[in-house]
Amino acid sequence: MIASLLAQASQVPFEAPVIDFHALAPEIVLVAFTAVVLLVDVIKLEEAKRLIPGLTGLAMLASLIPVISLALDGADRSLFGGAFVVDNLSLVLQAMFLLTAYVVTLLSSNYLAEGDFWESEFYLMLLSSVLGMVLMCSARDLVSIFVALELLSIPAYMMATWEKRNLRSNEAGLKYYLMGVFASALMLYGMSLLFGVSGSTLLTEIGAAIEGGSSSTPIVTLGIVLVIVGFAFKVSAVPFHTWAPDTYEGAPTPVTAFLAVASKAAGFVALLQLIFVGFLGRTDVIEPLMWVLAAASMTVGNLIALRQTNVVRLLAYSGIAQAGFMLAPLAVSGSNPDDALTAVVTYLLIYAGMNLGAFAVIIAVSRKTRSGEISSLGGLFGYAPGLTVAMTLCLASLAGIPPLGGWFAKFVVFRALTAADTPAGYALAIVVALNSVIAFYYYGLVLKAMWFSPAPDGDTTPIRVPVSLLSALTITVAATVLFGVFPGLIGHFTGNLAGLLSFAGG
Amino acid sequence: MWLNQFLLLGAVLFCIGVYGVLARRNGVMVLMSIELILNAVNINFIAFGAYHGTPIGQVFALFVIAVAAAEVGVGLAIVLLIYRNRSSIDLESANLLKG
């Protein structure tokens, strides 16, 4: 078959496709910086350790420039026959990933320099992983979604195992790797079935082929379910969440922050594209599946979080519950697509700010306490009032207390569910409301330890917070508060996302 | 058309692979089971590609092969690391983290 294809190809004159380099600029800048970081590491050896964190941060900010210029330009761009699309949705999410990665770089630099770690290579992994995420925002094709997913996952497996001599880090990486690879294998099998039904890997063409009741309904259903299950692992939705708490606890804490925010968001980005570009014609499969995943994630995540004593594990289970909140609007993706899409994106943006903020405080405090237990946070207000206030703001936002960002995020989810005006939507809205109440309890436990308990060993020497950590805290807490006080600000970014749907159809 | 026979082979390989991932406790055997699933995927892609008369199936299969090689490289590195630190690749013994 290949020989015949080659024979055919030699008769057709080759025409180079027109490539819009402006649309590809964020990825090109990232790749260029990745190469520079690699070269600096190879040439400068030990000296490189001082340069590379700065270069990595610069890479994230430099890639933001083309993202902003593309946003100002405003035109939707479609490359490679529709496999790579630049629109409002992809730009907003790319900006989120780049800023998240910038904050993670700030969180990592002191942590890595002070521990027993390989340093320069870590930033290379971080850059590759972010490249995968940025690519995922624009991918509208099964091949590019698959490549982006692996590009962001494979470096993340290594980052989770980064503390080579620590058995807990080893175990965290192994569990993450095995579950991640198994999930992507299931997803690929689903993709092969969808390709078989439609004969194309473009999401728009798959969507056209599977719409309505075709004769191959069971295969389509199996394909969709397997693909969604693959990404449900990535976003740690119940019952595919088992890796998350172990990996979060064992991995180095900056990596945990990266996995909990960026990697999870990348899973959601893929889900959004698959559902809203590809599977919108088959909401009879999507809606019940998402309903069950969302309700199970919220309930199980919250209930297990109630009995955690380690604050990182607690945030892992709270992250599972938050994933449930983010999946909830997808359960009404058929009856209320525009609101559902906006709700998920809004929640993702706010979640990134508040969750990174909480991890930044934990990293700062564990510089002194060397522990992740909730009891080790005791008396924090006495010797680190600034960190206590920052943590309080982030946790209150995660719990959904107004006027912080998390409140607005929950509000848009709630609005999307009720505006759908279906029994399933109302039922899920009740589950969301009940779970928001449960979440108050365990966030409250952490707050109580910080504000009212005495310091566990009476040690109240103040914590020295390095500049990079301080800037990370400032960025995240400012985002958490601003998005809550001025919800219009985020509406400005997410307001015209609905354009995605019309464009994808054309 | 011979499509169903390829699909049947793919489905059987897929099921053996999933069983292996769930039932085996040896790290390397789990990696091999995952390879089985990925090869089931490749067979599916190539069979469907031939059925539809498009080269996309083969292209996707090539991508899967290349990425799977990178993936297994990282996986074996992690298994090797664990073997060095605790002289065992039994997954049951990886139980420091729980709760």
Record field, number of beta strands of chain A? 2
Poorly predicted ranges of chain B: none
Supply Rg of chain A.
Answer: 22 Å
Number of domains of chain B: 1
Instruction: Characterize the largest beta sheet of chain B: strand count, sense, and whether it forms a barrel.
Output: none
**Percentage of residues in strands of chain B:** under 5%
> How much helicity do the residues of chain A have?
over 70%
Low-confidence stretches of chain A: 501-506
Shape of chain B: elongated
The profile of the biggest β sheet of chain A is:
2 strands, antiparallel
Mean pLDDT of chain A: 88
Helix content of chain B: over 70%
Separate helix tally of chain A: 21
Distance between the termini of chain A: 33 Å
Shape of chain A: globular
Q: What is the count of DSSP helices of chain B, taking H or I runs of 4+ residues?
A: 3
Please identify the top-level CATH class of chain B.
Mainly Alpha
Q: Most extensive chain contact?
A: A-B, 46 and 49 residues
Report on the structure:
- The complex is a heterodimer of chains A (506) and B (99).
- With 506 residues, chain A is mainly alpha-helical.
- Chain A has one domain.
- Chain A is 76% helix and 1% strand.
- Chain A has 21 helices and two strands.
- In chain A, strands 1-2 form a two-stranded antiparallel sheet.
- In chain A, a hairpin with a 4-residue loop joins strand 1 and strand 2 (84-86).
- Chain B has 99 residues and is mainly α.
- Chain B has a single domain (3-90), classed as Orthogonal Bundle (Helix Hairpins), CATH 1.10.287.3510.
- Helices cover 79% and strands 0% of the residues of chain B.
- Chain B is elongated and about 50 Å long.
- The model of chain B has no long low-confidence stretch (mean pLDDT 90).
- The chains are: A mainly alpha (506), B mainly alpha (99).
Secondary structure: elements and pairs:
The complex is a heterodimer of chains A (506) and B (99).
Chain A: H1 2-11, H2 21-44, H3 48-73, E1 77-79, E2 84-86, H4 88-114, H5 120-138, H6 142-160, H7 167-198, H8 203-210, H9 217-234, H10 243-250, H11 253-278, H12 283-305, H13 311-327, H14 337-369, H15 380-383, H16 385-399, H17 405-419, H18 423-451, H19 467-485, H20 487-494, H21 499-505
Antiparallel strand pairs in A: 1-2
Chain B: H1 3-23, H2 27-52, H3 56-86
Helix pairs in contact in B: 1-2, 2-3
